[in-house]
Amino acid sequence: MFDSGVGGLTVVKEVMRQLPREKIIYFGDTARSPYGPRSAEEVRLFTRQIVDYLIQYEPKMIVIACNTATAVALEELRAYVSIPVVGVIHPGARAALSATDTGYIGVIGTDGTIKSGAYEQALKRLNPHVEVISRACPNFVPLVEKGLFRSDESWRIVSDSLDPLRNVPIDTLILGCTHYPFLTEPIKQVMGSSVQLINSAEETAREISTILHDKGQLAHNDVVPVHQFFCSGDPDIFQQIARSWLGEQIHAVPVVWQMPQII
């Protein structure tokens, strides 16, 4: 499982809850986060490099726990490896369509995810009559990556970023970046109780479970798995955020490599 940084830990937490016997190997590309402002070519290069690193552990599946990387690289990675590759966009879209009563769905995400139109396309494929209102919130990821998601600053930034959505008639809001569930409380307060927030982690974990079950690959032993965490940036900050979010004493191993160059 990988993400541009710590955001994918929201998916890790849900997979650990639903599939407690499965071992997770997680890579957070914290040195190059955020992916949202980067070009599609950069994101594709980075994701290919991360997958090349993770394949050495012989995983049963690759989970792109990053909306920007899912939007840009999902199909390419599915063609690149021989194991299943799961993204977070379609599971989130399905969950939103199940939750909405009015058919008006909001999507917030990084610049890259919103510009790609990936959520609108996924939603429209499932229900062409749904109305989708999208907004980029580029200031959210840096807050989370710095561990400031519980700070007064985070409440101010969330309020300013979501202010244009307050008067839009949505009843469901997709948190279209795996970093955003760290900011659930301020987002809830700004949007109000009439708007249901969709965190794609739950639906993604269910999709992982279904695929592994269908392939006869679900872990059945009673041994508690020892998860592994890697990051390309500061391991101390990563560990602090991961331990706070997951409630476990994880150890992050820093990975230093040659950054691929755009030619």
Automatic annotation (TrEMBL):
One of its GO terms (molecular function) is glutamate racemase activity. Substrate binds at residues 3-4, 35-36, 67-68, 178-179. The active site is at residues 66, 177. The keyword Glycosyltransferase does not apply. HAMAP family: Glu_racemase (MF_00258). Belongs to the aspartate/glutamate racemases family. This is Glutamate racemase. The lineage of its organism: Bacteria, Bacillati, Bacillota, Bacilli, Bacillales. The gene is racE.
